[in-house]
Amino acid sequence: MPDMSALDALWVLIAAMLVLIMQGGFLCLESGLTRSKNAINVALKNAFDLIVAAILFWLFGFGIMFGAHEGLQLDTHWFIADFSRDEFWHASFFFFQLTFCATAATIVSGAIAERSRFLVYIIITALISLLLYPVFGHWSWSSAVNESPGWLEAMGFTDFAGSTVVHSVGGWVALAAVIVIGPRTGRFIRGKVQNIPGSNLPLAILGMLFFMIGWIGFNGGSTLAFTTAIAGIIVNTIIAAAAGGITAILLSMTQQDNSQTTSLTINGTLAGLVAITAGAHVVSTPQAAIIGGLGALVMFLAEKQMHRMQLDDAISAVPVHLAAGIWGTLAVAIFGDLQLLDTGLTRTGQLQVQLLGIAACALFVFPLSLSFLLLLNRYTPLRVSAEAERQGLNVSEHGAKTELSDLLSAMQTQERSG
Amino acid sequence: MPDMSALDALWVLIAAMLVLIMQGGFLCLESGLTRSKNAINVALKNAFDLIVAAILFWLFGFGIMFGAHEGLQLDTHWFIADFSRDEFWHASFFFFQLTFCATAATIVSGAIAERSRFLVYIIITALISLLLYPVFGHWSWSSAVNESPGWLEAMGFTDFAGSTVVHSVGGWVALAAVIVIGPRTGRFIRGKVQNIPGSNLPLAILGMLFFMIGWIGFNGGSTLAFTTAIAGIIVNTIIAAAAGGITAILLSMTQQDNSQTTSLTINGTLAGLVAITAGAHVVSTPQAAIIGGLGALVMFLAEKQMHRMQLDDAISAVPVHLAAGIWGTLAVAIFGDLQLLDTGLTRTGQLQVQLLGIAACALFVFPLSLSFLLLLNRYTPLRVSAEAERQGLNVSEHGAKTELSDLLSAMQTQERSG
Amino acid sequence: MPDMSALDALWVLIAAMLVLIMQGGFLCLESGLTRSKNAINVALKNAFDLIVAAILFWLFGFGIMFGAHEGLQLDTHWFIADFSRDEFWHASFFFFQLTFCATAATIVSGAIAERSRFLVYIIITALISLLLYPVFGHWSWSSAVNESPGWLEAMGFTDFAGSTVVHSVGGWVALAAVIVIGPRTGRFIRGKVQNIPGSNLPLAILGMLFFMIGWIGFNGGSTLAFTTAIAGIIVNTIIAAAAGGITAILLSMTQQDNSQTTSLTINGTLAGLVAITAGAHVVSTPQAAIIGGLGALVMFLAEKQMHRMQLDDAISAVPVHLAAGIWGTLAVAIFGDLQLLDTGLTRTGQLQVQLLGIAACALFVFPLSLSFLLLLNRYTPLRVSAEAERQGLNVSEHGAKTELSDLLSAMQTQERSG
Question: Within a domain: residue B411?
Fold first, then answer.
């Protein structure tokens, strides 16, 4: 262990395991918030995400992200790497990063659930694992492995655990996909948003708990070492989540329709987590509470805006991961302790760099994924047929029936004929 | 890290994460053992518990519990504390204690599930997080942070990880709430207890597994340091759980009605865990098996007694957390190695102090919460309307429908009309 | 801590906790892949497995496995041991081994789900915890505690974390039980296999994630120390799992019937995990990918073969744990770095010893469990009645009803009568 002490490596390993729990969070959240006729499809996609992202990130993604490339001359040192003979630290860090990449990939799929063809999930996962996450990650974080920092980090861009690098990247792709694929049938009737009740809200809430546990690793591990700062970072993370959740509960009380309390509570908590991710290491605990609470508000407003624009995001992935991610990245400059930030920038300068990073992410990820998906849509439809959507993707995509899905469809038939 | 070595802090952090998994255990257990028409309500309450307890315990609870108060002059040092700049150990310990406080709070809600207004959960959570847990905890554990021990610990009261401090506190509040709010409609017909089948027993059993995993942190972390004792403490914990489970299985065989095997097995295992919590550090592994097994028996007898008294505890929280908690606290004096206990007391003396602690908890928590709830009930009903109870709290409290709840209610209507 | 450093003990403890998560994996997988009328029965069995295995392994199993027996003269030192006063390392290691024993036991129950009497589960768990796992484990791993290695390890047999010692032992018993108990009614009609859809595929996929997380402890902890090798071992484990999953997805595309995609993906991933278990410490990451991928192929072919032989394994436990386990044990000799293996054997010699270990497991476990179950079947039927099987084991074995099971059975009745 030349680079790191044993305790550092152990901590990164533990953190990576915790982040894996977030995959369970996505699975529970997404299959809980969607209808049972699509729940298998959604859950299976979560399994595929992880598997496909793991292989592709190992084959090339990690190498693209952390290679010491010179211009367009790629450093292939980390392609298809053998981590078993490598230094302890590199293998631990690869595992940690792999779980981050899988997180970025899995954000998208929830947004376009219930009407997308399964193939689209795989293609988007490949796009994120091989190109979008590694390249933007290279700009922001590459110094973790190689000597030369990426251009954004060199300028002082600070995104501790990935409000932008992970969550906004996933969020921008989700937004592009939501636009290209279009809303679920029946989601907007005469311009008014219609609630589509989820199949299993308790499961979705269990997902929220998995997120809170997993995020301890997401933020706590991003020190990449076992430092005295991590306990404070973890407390900041938990308090920001709780503040986000409470803000969402209060916001839900202002709504006429109380049927969204559950999803708002979940998404407010997640927005609090996303928002604190960029600056958990440079803010105080009370500031973390404010950042988390405002994160939930930003999520809430973004969701309203998406409804107004008739954009249908089945699990509010864009408001949570993109909107709260942008807010969190800005909050670094607004609240962060400049000494701890240690970028040598003034507060205004830091704010400009944070805005630059946010803009770079937007301009790199959104147009690229939008045009890619529009192009792809010409060759193969991204959306299932109206009949398949009505029937549910469990059956149309996987021929997967369950007793309950059989029963529910029989009941619906009866209801209609009856 | 002035107070603790890095490994100690790491261990407390890991333990706190494990205890968070217990929140998933409560969620699965409670929503699995209740009817689907209430399952969302129950699960949402678990999310709220955690969020609200986290914020309130951070704002004031921790400060009340661990401040160096002089009489009624409060030491406000830890109120709304900034743990990000504090010592590593304090932030870790706060996180650990926060998960304990959330555990105490969440015990209550399961007991009064399926007929309580949502507001009641929030108020009870606030009562526990701000007053009951911090004050009783101050009496028993305050020396963990400040120099001066609380009066109970000064007398030699020993409750290693909280059979009384956490579980009985929650259990006494649950008992008061069960008395004030009354049984679910249909639970007792002509004085005879009627089984109300849960919606998802596999989920409840998954909850039991989460408890076993989480309890490793609950007990293992209560050393507050990484000592050579923890592996033995963890083995004691697992063996006590297993002994409790097996005792419950054997007890279930003595029953005419075999429909309670599942919930008995789960609750026997939990009772074993609660019972070993007070003395896991001072008993041998065979003694742990005996304590766990007797814990299940105590739970079983307490449940029978509650049925006789027509007290309706939807998930047997009182038998598990209060009854087995009392037993576990006594077992410290009965079985504990006096040298390891190191209180300087004789076995009889220790037994007296344990009884004193149990009595102090009862006399402080039960009358206070009973009168508080009775008073509150005058101003705002704690119970939903009979119609809302029939309809289910998912709909009446949250307007939350699911396909399945729709279907089940349609079926019931059909059955009646048909 | 005389034997191990604190960090080593901490690592083994963490690993043991992770392996406990695998019990949640089995629960989710098995109750998800079976019908809801049996889901409670299956989940309850998972709880019993763990509890019963824990107690019996503590009472005698661990002592049989790691005692320094001289011929038939048993060393009873570890029987009903008090780990609370023992060395740190022994208690940690006992906990780790206990989770392994529970894993071996729980493999069987899924295979014979939906038609076995509950008693059979308990008896098989006892057989595995007291005899089969401890004895075969003694042959392969006893040097971990006592000086004298078992005869297989003395010859150079290498099974790092138990492709044979845990998974094949469970798999052979499962095969024997499947043969004796016979297929579920309706599984084979005129020799053709009929799909029996699971009740909750999202839950089964969540189980797959729990397995991936738990296996990090299973393989990572089997170093029994915190060495620089563990990060590479963990990466190998994850990559093998992903390669197994992807292979299974590709295989599922070759099938006419796309309804098996979900279970194939899950089982391919698990087969990848089982396969890498024996040699995760001696192969490179690319080799791990190949071993995992081929593990899924072996699983797939074994499943086809079982269908041809009309053997009904409800969750494909035999193809996953036995077939992929055998392949993984051979792969040690095929791919393993001889220097790292450090057995002093040539590649051919190593292959012979691996074959010997596989044969020893087969010849010890399979005939013994087959004849035991055949004999037992004479005295008490292992299988429920045809009526009970039709009705579902939730009701017939536990009297456990749920709203949904009630509803489904009412619907079926209606359908028939209607």
Answer: no
